[in-house]
Structures are given as structure tokens and as C-alpha cells.
Write a structure and sequence with these properties.
CATH architecture: 6 Propeller
Order of helices and strands: HEEEEEEEEEEEEEEEEEEEEEHEEEEE
Number of helices: 2
Largest sheet: 4 strands, antiparallel
CATH class: Mainly Beta
Distance between the termini: 51 Å
Shape: globular
Number of strands: 26
Length: about 350
């Protein structure tokens, strides 16, 4: 009996050793198994799980409602999540609780083409309408507080936009910046009360020149990060619009967000050609070092704009596939049921 047991044990150990020896080595063991035909993730692996149909699985929206192309998603300090989409089968802004349950909605008939959405420090919700050439400030419940631009009337002066895209705030002063955008090639700055202060930029590829100003964000030092998408770069400026430097190694950036702790994330694509021809499907979310621009970690994701929840670390992505994506931290790279998060 002991002989048989010894024989079986020897065979098992031999098989394990054989399989271990036969297993190809990972190109990046710290990222798990990366086979020879694949490149490791840039900088390292962002360890997140994902809900690919946040707000629709389970479906708690009114009967017959469905997202169109989701341009952007944001979250407020109370945990509510705002999905800004372009479809006719639901209000333009659909609000969910942190678990994806429908709460309220508003905005039907207001926007020509929804683009960017952000929550400010007071939980006001700002919506950028690129086709309508306007920017709106709402309460959480959808009451309009203020607007900028003239509906359906493009322009380049201090009262007009020409297809604006995104918004960001100076953290000390609460002055705000509008990226303007698809037809104009500039950044417009207003004071905290909405009074025009200045603008900078023109069409081109040199410093302080733009070709599609698609996203904008600020850090704790007041620096302004501008996605110059069709020039495949991010340009960085002072609060006065003075050029500091540019990053040309991150591709065609669709979205930028910087947390209260100065953690920077971008939604980007290899280049402007792939971004357009793949219709934002072949994207990457990258975590970036603010001082150097170094890629710290990355993961694949389709997407347009993105928003980081400062409290939970979740990443919300508006995807033009018609999905709101919710990426949640998963340090063990295991999927976690929503009710357990």
C-alpha cells in the first residue's frame, strides 16, 4: 500500500513539474500571464473590474427607456451618477444611485448634442451641448441656474462658443474653463460668477494651437491640462493661458480627469486615425504621473469622457457604444457582485 501511495505521489509531482516546465513564461509576471504575442500594459496593469451596462442591468428605468450614445458620465458627492446620452428614448440626463438604480431624470429637448457633463464642488451639474453651442448649470434635480452661449448661434467672441466640449474649475478660485472645441480652437475662462475673463488658442499644431480641443482638467497647483486630440497630444498651461509644456506620447486623448489627490487618468487612443475609424472602441484608460507624464498603469476600455469618483476610486466612462461603464477597484483581479461593493 505504501509503495502504491509513493508511486502515485511521485507521478503527481512529476506531472506538476512537467506542466510547470512546459508553461511559457509571462512577459510581465507582475501583470499575470502575458503571452509572447502580447505587449504588457503600459506602465503596469490597472486592477479594476467593470459593470459594462451600469444603469441598465438591472434595468430600473421607466418602461421603454434606453440610452443612446453615452457621451459622458459624472458622479456627485452624495453618490448619485449622471449619465449624459444622445438617444431619443430617455431624458438626456438620467440619474442613478451608486448601485445603478434609477432615481430621476431631466433634460429632454434642451440639448442639440450632449457632450460633457461634470459636477462642481457644490454638486451643481454642468452640461456642455456642442451642437447647440451652449454650456448649462443645473441643480441636482435639473433646475436651470445659468447658461452661457447662444442656442444655435456659433461665434468666437465672449458671448459665443462654436461646438464646446468640456469644463473644469480652478480649485482655489472656482473660476472655470470651457474647452471650445470642435470648430473653435481655444480655451475660454470665466470667473466663479460666470463673467468672461480671457481666452487663448488658435487653429494649428504649434504651442498654444489646437486641432479639436476635446477635454480639459486642472490640478491642485492651478495648471490646466488640455486635450488637443487631433494633434495627438496634451498641452499644459498656467491659469493665465501661458504655455508650460506638452505631452506627445499618450496618443489621441478623449477624456481627462484629475482627482482631489492629483491622481490623473486619461481616456486615450493610440492615435487620431484609430480613434475615429474604430469609433472610440480601441481605447485605453491610463493613470499618469502629473509631473513627468509617465504612464503608471493602463487597461483597455472603449470610451469618450471619463470621471473619477474621489471617494470610491471608481471610474465612470461614457461610451459611444451606448453604455455607461463603471470600473471599480479590484486589487485581487476578481469580479465582485454589485451588492457587495
Amino acid at each position: 500500500m505504501k509503495r502504491k501511495l509513493l508511486l502515485v505521489t511521485t507521478m503527481v509531482l512529476g506531472l506538476v513539474a512537467f506542466l510547470a516546465a512546459d508553461q511559457p513564461k509571462s512577459k510581465a509576471p507582475e501583470q499575470g500571464y502575458v503571452p509572447e504575442g502580447w505587449y504588457p500594459h503600459e506602465g503596469g496593469l490597472l486592477k479594476y473590474g467593470v459593470d459594462i451596462r451600469f444603469g441598465e442591468e438591472p434595468d430600473t428605468m421607466p418602461e421603454g427607456w434606453k440610452f443612446g450614445r453615452v457621451s459622458a458620465v459624472t458622479s456627485d458627492s452624495k453618490g448619485d451618477v449622471y449619465v449624459f446620452h444622445r438617444g431619443p428614448k430617455a431624458d438626456a440626463v438620467v440619474v442613478f444611485d451608486s448601485l445603478g438604480k434609477y432615481v430621476r431624470s431631466w433634460g429632454r429637448g434642451i440639448f442639440g448634442r450632449p457632450h460633457g457633463i461634470r459636477a462642481d464642488k457644490d454638486d451643481n451639474i454642468w452640461c456642455v451641448d456642442d451642437a447647440g453651442h451652449q454650456v448649462f448649470k443645473f441643480t441636482r434635480e435639473g433646475k436651470l441656474l445659468q447658461s452661457w452661449g447662444v442656442k444655435g448661434e456659433p461665434g468666437t467672441d465672449d458671448k459665443h462658443f462654436n461646438r464646446p466640449t468640456d469644463i473644469a474649475w480652478d480649485r482655489q478660485t472656482q473660476d472655470f474653463y470651457i474647452s471650445d472645441g470642435y470648430r473653435n480652437a481655444r480655451v475660454v475662462k470665466f470667473d466663479k460668477n460666470g463673467k468672461y475673463l480671457l481666452a487663448w488658442g488658435k487653429a494649428g499644431s504649434g504651442p498654444s494651437e489646437f486641432d479639436t480641443v476635446h477635454a480639459i482638467a486642472t490640478d491642485s497647483k492651478g495648471r490646466v491640462y488640455v486635450s488637443d486630440r487631433e494633434n495627438n497630444r496634451i498641452q499644459i498651461f498656467t491659469p493665465k493661458g501661458e504655455f508650460i509644456k506638452q505631452w506627445t506620447h499618450l496618443g489621441a486623448t478623449q477624456g481627462i480627469d484629475i482627482t482631489d489627490k492629483d491622481e490623473m487618468f486619461v481616456m486615450t487612443h493610440r492615435n487620431n486615425v484609430e480613434n475615429i475609424i474604430y469609433d472610440t472602441l480601441a481605447g485605453r484608460i491610463m493613470k499618469i504621473d502629473l509631473e513627468t507624464g509617465k504612464v503608471l498603469a493602463a487597461m483597455e476600455s472603449p470610451g469618450h469622457h471619463l470621471d473619477i469618483n474621489d471617494k470610491t476610486g471608481e471610474i465612470f466612462v461614457g461610451s459611444l457604444t451606448g453604455n455607461a461603464l463603471r470600473w471599480y477597484p479590484a486589487p485581487k483581479m476578481e469580479r465582485v457582485p454589485r451588492r457587495s461593493r
